[in-house]
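User: Sequence in, structure out. Go.
Assistant: Echoing your sequence, followed by the structure tokens.
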Amino acid sequence: MSAAQTPRARAALLRDLVAWLNERFAPDGPSIHAETPLFVGGLLDSMRILELIAWTERATGREIPDGAIRTDNFASAARIAELFAGGGPRAHR
């Protein structure tokens, strides 16, 4: 495991992502947490997922390959951090 893929890197991405999700998509609603399903109840739609992908790419400094852009990979903030923090197995430069 490289230094970029440490639990600390995942935790930092997760913390920042949850904060951004709450600020951007739930400022007046119920809080979004690490395991909150992002596609249930219309929290994310086709436009919002594009914002989330762009945010994730900026936060990780890596492009997310088209093949990794699937709803199951973006199902929750925890899943996103697991896959893409530190470049994860599906992210590349």
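User: And one key feature?
Assistant: The chain has a mean pLDDT of 87.
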